Amino acid sequence: MKEFIPKAWWDALPSFYKTSFYKTSFYKKERPAPISLAYILGPYRGKNNAEIKENIMTAKWYQLKLTQKYKGIFFISPHANTEFLDGAQSDKYFLEGTLELLRRCDMYYKLPGWEKSSGSRGEVKEAQKLGLTELEDEL
């Protein structure tokens, strides 16, 4: 670390920071075991707020059950990520953002009823184009 910080700055640092840095995994070049990312896709929109809330709660339930069942996989639910954000940005903003989340994942999981959602169908096409693994599990 000393080679990255000018000597005057290093000398001015309290000793606590100097010693605690050397104990970090960053300094030791250690990394935690890799964890896979799985994207949960399914309908978000609904005819009214009650349907939207039901879709969000369904996604959260599956996220919980999948997280409990699969160790070493982190499940990303865009439903939970965008809850209560309707109107904060355009639909295009959220669709592009959630597609970017999907692109960074290793696999995907389709919620029941996914085929009824144009957004979910687009996500499946993108996942297949990227060669992501589909996690098939009937909870």
Structure report:
- By secondary structure, this protein is of the alpha/beta class.
- The chain has two domains: 1-32, no CATH class; 36-134, Hypothetical protein PA1492 (Rossmann fold), CATH 3.40.50.
- It has helices at 7-12, 15-22, 25-28, 49-69, 78-82, 91-103, 118-130; strands spanning 36-41, 73-76, 107-110, 133-134.
- A four-stranded parallel sheet has the order 2-1-3-4, with helices on both faces.
- β3, α7 and β4 form a beta-alpha-beta unit.
- The chain starts with 6 loop residues before the first helix and ends in a 5-residue tail after the last strand.
- The mean pLDDT is 83.
Entry summary:
The chain is α/β, with parallel strands linked by helices and 139 residues long.
Distance between the termini: 48 Å
The counted number of beta strands is 4
Q: How many alpha or pi helices? A: 7
Task: Look at the structure and give the mean pLDDT.
Answer: 83
Using only CA atoms, what is the Rg? 21 Å
- How many discrete structural domains? 2
- The level of helicity is 40-55%
What is the element string, with H for helices and E for strands? HHHEHEHHEHE
Return the structural class.
Answer: alpha/beta
User: What global shape is seen?
Assistant: globular
- Might you state the CATH topology name of the largest domain? Rossmann fold
Low-confidence stretches: none
